Amino acid sequence: MTTPIRPVPLADIIADRIRNMILEGVLRPGERLTAERELAEKFGVSRPSLRAALERLEQQGLLVTGKSGTIVAQFLGSLVDPLAELLADDERASADYFEFRQSIEAHASGLAALRATEPDREAIRDCLERMKATHAAEDFTAEAACDVELHGLVYEAAHNVLLLHIMRVLADLMRRGTFYNRETLFRRHGVRAALLKQHLAIGEAILAGNPNEAEMAASQHIDFTHTTIEEIRRDELRMATSLRRIDRHDLVADSPARR
């Protein structure tokens, strides 16, 4: 006896489509979906079917519905928050982060050079142009935002969903200042110009479809960033030590040497 074929509920089909868009990074955590009516029209389905699909995804922790609408959940937050706590005061965290990032960033850039589609390349071109413009305007905040965006575009162009979501977790930790302060890095003399040159080298190698150059440029970029961060920390430590020496008179009793 053959098993009867049961039709797949439309709500399940819609939920699978949205779930895949979240997995592929098309829909990003924190982004708000368009209004229910518009979304139903876009998918060509009824609002009750769409609503049922959204409810399924909300139950799975992928969407959150509130007064402001339906938002893609920060579904990796349960990993990021405790990880940030663990790494916050660990002296090894920064060095381990850069060691990991150097290999992953190079690999992602090489994959992007091989796999980037024309829409991927167009997004990278646009980001590079905006990065040059914000650099020329000395808009540090906007330039830093372009920096973050470019790396995200590289991960997307690599077309590896696991790499994409892992690097988004690290990007979230970086935004919190877990590993280093980006503003402090940008204030270092000559660093902004060097970073711009490095970012352009990464982007242009990807646009040219040259994986070897892309990997090398990305590796050199992460190595430079790590080295500069360590130099900044050493300078800050020296300054703190010098200031403590100046203020030592608040800690010791009057001595013959000071009379």
Distance between the termini: 107 Å
CATH topology of the largest domain: Four Helix Bundle (Hemerythrin (Met), subunit A)
CATH architecture descriptor name of the largest domain: Up-down Bundle
**Total of domains:** 2
What radius of gyration results from the CA coordinates?
A: 24 Å
What's the arrangement of strands in the largest beta sheet? 1-2
| Number of helical regions | 11
CATH class designation of the largest domain: Mainly Alpha
Using the alpha-carbon principal axes, give the shape: globular
**Strand elements, count:** 2
Strand content of the residues, in percent?
under 5%
Portion of residues in helices?
55-70%
pLDDT averaged over residues: 87
Query: What is the H/E string?
Result: HHHEEHHHHHHHH
Low-pLDDT segments = none
| CATH superfamily placement of the largest domain | GntR ligand-binding domain-like
The profile of the biggest β sheet is: 2 strands, antiparallel
Category from helices, strands and their pairing: mainly alpha
Structure summarized in a few sentences:
The chain is mainly alpha-helical and about 260 residues long. Helix content is about 70%, strand content about 5%.
